[in-house]
């Protein structure tokens, strides 16, 4: 099966390897690229003492570039959305890592259950407000440090034609609502999907699926859990 991966390049390469191990042919079309702000992360860590929250593996990659600056903070509890992000934090050396199996709202509930009073959220931009909104509902004090931005990448007509000409993709993987919105804002990509018929659109969550145009909703399948293992199991 030919599978189109729309993740940023760093993450897409790891997904591509998993797809090859499953016997699929990955096609990579990054629609966003990260721009890290390590100084913002380092400053926020230095100014706080409590638990840390991350809702994306990209925030962990920002931390990985801090080197010795990170060492004094490895004893701080860290809360992560998804086991993959949690594992990345453990590999960095964090000793107390807790993962939610759901979305940002679930992570906020998990933070509340452990009676965390002050929380540093290492966030990106753009982002959904789910996590922060739930923290406010629960009355949890938190601060936000925007330590990375996801900048748009515009694929060229030749790149799109190479993917969709001949043997077109059998499925497209969407990991975020923003990426799905980016995808369907490109006229050539919208046309390619419409012309090729029933290419399966596999979405990490219901929130991601909401960005799929109404005319293509019947080709959408939503992962049972918002993690890559569950998403790839749909193939």
Question: Short description, anyone?
Answer:
By secondary structure, the protein is α/β, with parallel strands linked by helices. It has helices spanning 9-21, 38-47, 57-64, 83-92, 104-113, 130-138, 157-164, 177-185, 187-196, 206-209, 228-232, and strands at 2-5, 25-28, 32-36, 51-54, 78-81, 97-100, 118-125, 141-152, 171-174, 200-203, 220-222. Helix 4 (83-92) links the parallel strand 5 (78-81) and strand 6.
Which structural traits does this protein have?
235 residues, single chain
Describe this structure in words.
The protein is of the alpha/beta class and 235 residues long. It has helices at residues 9-21, 38-47, 57-64, 83-92, 104-113, 130-138, 157-164, 177-185, 187-196, 206-209, 228-232, and strands at 2-5, 25-28, 32-36, 51-54, 78-81, 97-100, 118-125, 141-152, 171-174, 200-203, 220-222. A six-stranded mixed sheet has the order 3-8-7-4-5-6. Strands 2-1-9-10-11 form a five-stranded parallel sheet. Helix 10 links the parallel strand 10 and strand 11 (220-222). Helix 3 runs parallel beside helix 4. The radius of gyration is 19 Å and the shape is elongated. The mean pLDDT is 94.
């Amino acid at each position: 099966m030919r599978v189109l991966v729309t993740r940023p390049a760093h993450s897409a390469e790891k997904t591509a390897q998993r797809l090859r191990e499953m016997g699929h042919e990955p096609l990579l079309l990054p629609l966003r690229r990260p721009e890290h702000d390590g100084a913002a992360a380092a400053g926020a860590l230095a100014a706080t003492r409590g638990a840390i929250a991350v809702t994306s593996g990209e925030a962990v990659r920002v931390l990985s570039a801090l080197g010795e600056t990170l060492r004094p903070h490895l004893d701080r509890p860290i809360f992560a959305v998804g086991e993959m992000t949690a594992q990345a934090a453990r590999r960095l050396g964090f000793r107390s890592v807790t993962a939610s199996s759901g979305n940002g709202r679930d992570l906020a509930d998990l933070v509340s259950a452990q009676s965390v009073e002050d929380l540093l959220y290492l966030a990106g931009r753009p982002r959904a407000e789910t996590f922060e909104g739930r923290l406010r509902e629960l009355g949890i004090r938190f601060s936000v440090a925007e330590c990375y931005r996801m900048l748009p990448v515009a694929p060229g007509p030749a790149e799109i034609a190479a993917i969709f000409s001949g043997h077109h993709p059998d499925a497209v993987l969407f990991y975020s609502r923003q990426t799905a919105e980016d995808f369907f804002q490109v006229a050539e990509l919208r046309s390619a999907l419409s012309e090729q018929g029933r290419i399966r659109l596999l979405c990490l969550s219901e929130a991601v699926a909401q960005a799929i145009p109404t005319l293509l909703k019947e080709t959408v399948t939503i992962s049972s859990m918002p993690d890559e293992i569950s998403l790839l199991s749909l193939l």
